[in-house]
């Protein structure tokens, strides 16, 4: 696969390209992303991507300057993206041998064609061999080899369990440049382990932010006590993953099992002791996820705060019950934020908060971020609309009042306001207090009453208010008024005469 680096100082623009472009179908893989030219330069030197998609306007080193620097040492192909239609930019792009120059907002089909053209150029030049790197798999293998080398020969054959303790605050410390706090947490874990377990316990540090223990099956442990002590010191949050008991000969499997349980901390929650895999209640249906995401986005855009939050809760619970991993949660979150933010950008409104999304360590923190993001977005939408009455309902009511005598279907209305039928049905009932069909029925019957009082014939009135079936008109009229049209007409004629 051809390696691609995305460079843009706008978080959701980067994530949007990563999410919506069918990279695999284009024989490409995303190897990284950067928010400015200097960060991109470092990642280019590390990853040596075949293609760099870069925005022009970024703080520090802009996209074209980045391309100029890279072209002196590498044969990386550049696709330049800009929000400005400036001929001088285009000329500079040609000078740095950019394959394409694309203007924002990006046309997806145009962008895909640019990628295809770039891939063909790389093939033609034959500058790079395709290298497929299974980084995660290799990392696991390295950890297992290291783990095995230390373990073999240290302990006699016995039944053991593997425990991995992870410092969940590690990334936070790195961003704040407080690596010393991470060492403090790790040392505290080591001291606690030495104090509470026998000398036969092996303590390893396969990563800088975690400790692995090999415990005899008879070891008595209470890791909640350790969690409490670290919380009490206010120096971080930890999560513990514990394997089943098995013979030391299966140490690789035990280590892998403990690690998998630790990875489920996104579902169980940080600051917890995990001794089993998170239970999966159903198979994930991607179409259902798409429907829920659409509801969240639509509710947010149309400023329906409670409905947006309700749809978010349903989506997250659906993903939790499906036992999905952290990347799938982020994928859905990015799509939600990207689409809502795209609507705000159309109105020249910027909304940030990407750092909080990246910092989410479990579903609870992710949910908190998304709730805040949606609430802030709705506040912006309300500000944009000047706190006008609900635009969707306004459009629907106006249409019904003007077209009640025609065939009106929920399908027609849903297309008009870009909402799915099921959602629109619930939404309409919540706002109006009655369902869609009842509302239209009442409008028609009220109009029929006016016409009958004026002396119009019943058959004519039925057609004028939208009923082709005279019998159905009689049934609905009686449901609303308690009288048949003939009875209503006679009654009102009597009152008029008298």
Structure commentary:
This protein is α/β, with parallel strands linked by helices and 498 residues long. The protein folds into four domains: 2-125, Rossmann fold (3-Layer(aba) Sandwich), CATH 3.40.50; 135-274, Alpha-Beta Plaits; 286-384; 391-497, Arc Repressor Mutant, subunit A. It is built from 23 helices and eleven strands. A hairpin with a 2-residue loop joins strand 7 (202-207) and strand 8. It is flat, with a radius of gyration of 32 Å.
Number of helices: 23
Which CATH top level class of the largest domain fits?
Alpha Beta
Strand residues, percent: 5-15%
Distance between the termini: 89 Å
Average pLDDT works out at 80
Rg over CA atoms, rounded to whole Å, is 32 Å
Reported by name, the CATH topology of the largest domain is: Alpha-Beta Plaits
Helical percentage:
55-70%
What's the total number of strands?
11
Total domain modules: 4
Shape designation? flat
The CATH architecture category of the largest domain equals: 2-Layer Sandwich
Q: What structural class do helix, strand and pairing data support? A: alpha/beta
**CATH level-4 homologous superfamily of the largest domain:** Reverse transcriptase/Diguanylate cyclase domain
Keywords: Cytoplasm, DNA-binding, Phosphoprotein, Transcription, Transcription regulation, Two-component regulatory system
Protein name: Stage 0 sporulation protein A homolog
GO molecular function, one term: DNA-binding transcription factor activity
Pfam families: HTH_18, Response_reg
């Amino acid at each position: 696969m051809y390696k691609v680096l995305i460079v843009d100082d706008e978080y959701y623009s980067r994530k949007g390209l990563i999410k919506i472009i069918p990279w695999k179908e284009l024989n490409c893989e995303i190897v990284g992303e950067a928010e400015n030219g200097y960060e991109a330069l470092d990642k280019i030197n590390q990853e040596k991507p075949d293609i760099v998609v870069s925005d022009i306007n970024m703080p520090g080193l802009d996209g074209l300057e980045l391309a100029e620097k890279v072209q002196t040492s590498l044969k990386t192909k550049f696709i330049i993206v800009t929000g400005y239609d400036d001929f001088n930019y285009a000329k500079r792009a040609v000078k740095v041998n950019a394959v394409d120059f694309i203007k924002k907002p990006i046309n997806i089909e145009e962008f895909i064609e640019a990628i295809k053209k770039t891939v063909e150029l790389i093939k033609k030049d034959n500058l790079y061999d395709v290298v497929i790197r299974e980084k995660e798999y290799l990392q696991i293998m390295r950890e297992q080899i290291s783990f095995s080398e230390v373990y073999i020969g240290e302990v006699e054959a016995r039944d053991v369990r593997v425990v991995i303790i992870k410092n969940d605050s590690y990334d936070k410390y790195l961003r704040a440049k407080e690596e010393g706090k991470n060492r403090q947490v790790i040392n505290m874990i080591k001291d606690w382990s030495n104090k509470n377990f026998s000398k036969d316990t092996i303590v390893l540090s396969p990563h800088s932010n975690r400790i692995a223990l090999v415990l005899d099956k008879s070891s008595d442990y209470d890791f909640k006590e350790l969690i409490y002590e670290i919380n009490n010191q206010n120096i971080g949050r930890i999560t513990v993953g514990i394997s089943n008991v098995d013979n030391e000969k299966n140490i690789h499997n035990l280590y892998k099992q403990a690690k998998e349980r630790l990875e489920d901390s996104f579902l169980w929650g940080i600051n917890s002791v995990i001794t089993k895999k998170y239970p999966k209640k159903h198979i994930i249906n991607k179409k259902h996820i798409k429907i829920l995401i659409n509801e969240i986005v639509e509710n947010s855009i149309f400023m329906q705060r409670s409905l947006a939050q309700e749809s978010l809760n349903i989506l997250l619970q659906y993903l939790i019950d499906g036992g999905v991993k952290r990347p799938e949660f982020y994928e859905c979150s990015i799509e939600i934020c990207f689409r809502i933010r795209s609507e705000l950008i159309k109105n020249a409104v910027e909304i940030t908060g990407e750092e909080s999304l990246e910092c989410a360590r479990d579903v609870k923190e992710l949910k908190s971020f998304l709730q805040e993001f949606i609430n802030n977005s709705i506040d912006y939408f309300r500000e944009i609309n000047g706190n006008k009455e609900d635009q969707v309902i306004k459009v629907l009511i106006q249409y019904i009042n003007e077209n009640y005598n025609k065939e009106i279907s929920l399908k027609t209305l849903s297309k008009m306001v870009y909402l799915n039928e099921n959602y629109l049905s619930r939404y309409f009932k919540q706002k109006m207090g009655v369902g869609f069909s009842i509302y239209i029925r009442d409008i028609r019957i009220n109009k029929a009453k006016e016409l009958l009082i004026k002396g119009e014939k019943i058959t004519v009135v039925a057609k004028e208010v939208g009923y082709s079936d005279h019998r159905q008109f009689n049934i609905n009229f009686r449901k609303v008024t308690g009288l048949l049209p003939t009875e209503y007409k006679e009654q009102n004629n009597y009152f008029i005469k008298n």
